[in-house]
């Protein structure tokens, strides 16, 4: 497919990265947005993915209020409102619950070495019922040919969900780019949640814990895996931020095929995901 002009509806980290990829391929990009602001990758310790000036002045992406002319593809994302409240919370010394996003709340607390709000999330860290609340609103756009911020179907558990963490929307943006440019793409979604801060990293893949469970200790990390007869259903990882590249690489491999964890090998031995699935979940009883 020859792609020359694309409309992206909504401005957030995923759509900003998609615009970046298209512009570096010579594709014209319009971003339709009701909230032009700097797209954040996430709260600290992450940095802004791109500034608004970079998107407009360096990439020469047009921010528009109405579509103009014809487009080869329309990609729907979302506008994010109220994120300033989250950034302001970083200057306080009280745990904060971001309504509807307990994993983001955990990141905020871990970053500031505070207890995690005791809401909708069980992690092996100190939790508290004493917290303030802030809210973030997402305005999704619907009706386009591709989606970054709408309803996704999890490949393992079949549940419908909205990707809340920016990193998953960035991965979805890569899938859209690859598909439109004729490159290979996973073509399926796998729910991703994570909390990172200080010396702790937690990552969850899949809808919910179901099936047989196995816990593997590997070095200073732990992996809980759930599934039946070699079919993965859910993974929870606990470790350090330095484990991030490996964990997210395994996540992206798992989006491609269910047997991804058989490939979790390196010259220094087997990885935690390989040990969990091969050593336990392949057994029928």
TrEMBL record:
- What domain of life is recorded for the organism? Archaea
**Protein name as catalogued:** Uncharacterized protein
The organism of origin for this protein: Pyrobaculum oguniense (strain DSM 13380 / JCM 10595 / TE7)
């Amino acid at each position: 497919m020859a792609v020359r002009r694309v409309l992206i509806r909504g401005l957030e980290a995923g759509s900003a990265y998609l615009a970046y990829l298209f512009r570096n391929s010579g594709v014209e990009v319009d971003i339709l947005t009701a909230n032009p602001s700097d797209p954040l990758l996430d709260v600290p310790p992450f940095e802004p993915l791109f500034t608004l000036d970079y998107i407009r002045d360096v990439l020469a992406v047009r921010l528009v209020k109405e579509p103009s002319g014809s487009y080869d593809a329309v990609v729907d994302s979302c506008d994010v409102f109220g994120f300033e409240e989250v950034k302001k919370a970083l200057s306080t010394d009280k745990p904060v619950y971001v309504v509807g996003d307990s994993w983001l709340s955990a990141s905020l607390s871990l970053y500031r070495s505070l207890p995690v709000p005791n809401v909708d999330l069980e992690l092996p860290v100190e939790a508290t019922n004493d917290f303030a609340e802030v809210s973030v609103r997402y305005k999704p756009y619907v009706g386009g040919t591709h989606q970054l911020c709408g309803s996704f179907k999890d490949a393992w558990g079949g549940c419908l969900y909205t990707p809340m963490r920016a990193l998953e929307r960035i991965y979805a943006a890569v899938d859209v780019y690859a598909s439109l440019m004729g490159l290979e793409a996973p073509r399926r979604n796998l729910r991703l949640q994570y909390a990172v801060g200080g010396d702790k990293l937690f990552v969850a893949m899949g809808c919910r814990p179901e099936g047989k469970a196995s816990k593997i200790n590997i070095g200073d990390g732990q992996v809980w895996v759930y599934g039946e007869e070699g079919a993965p259903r859910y993974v929870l990882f606990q470790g350090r931020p330095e484990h991030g590249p490996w964990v997210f690489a395994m996540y992206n491999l798992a989006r491609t095929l269910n047997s991804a964890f058989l490939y979790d090998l390196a010259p220094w031995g087997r990885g935690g995901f390989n040990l969990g699935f091969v050593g336990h979940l392949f057994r029928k009883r």
